[in-house]
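Researcher: Please predict.
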Amino acid sequence: MTSFTPPIGTQALLFDADGTLIDTWGLHRAVWTELLGRVDFTVTDDWWEAYAHEDLLTMVQAAVPGADLNRAEELNEEGTRLYLESLDRVDRVHHVAQIAERFHGQFPMAVVTAGFRDVVVPTLEAVGIAGLFSAIVTGDDVDQIKPAPDGYALAARLLGVDPSACVAFEDSDSGLRSARDAGIGTLIDIRRL
């Protein structure tokens, strides 16, 4: 188990979902590899690294030049269906999920993700941790997703705490920037945890 002690004055714990609480990247990549393979595009390691954290339209246009928002949304709908059919392939990021389990009931906790509610909630449920969180803030709930600070700012408001008294757990530079720009007091990069 990871030894994590919240700093003195901590009032809430905030967790990113994909890659932080839940190991979903392999499944997301498999889904997008299949979808984009249907239009003769090969998802390489470099392409995935460059575009996996981008917004939907940017990612799709990087593979299918000229694709409009309707085409991107069609691909995303099919991808969501394929993903939800394969939830048995996801697992917890154990050392981070254990932190959430250990502090459940001691601090209010929220999930803050750029993902969409129709995917995030079933994924959290599939790995048995959805009930740990007082709030789940998704890309559906904010005007701008990460790296904008909107999600973290909303989570702190929903939990009724000052952002500076929160700890955020993240696995990406854009997520860490989002939390920092929202005024979150302590940032934990789980890649170094």
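Model: Strands lie at 12-15, 22-23, 91-92, 109-112, 135-137, 166-170, 186-189.
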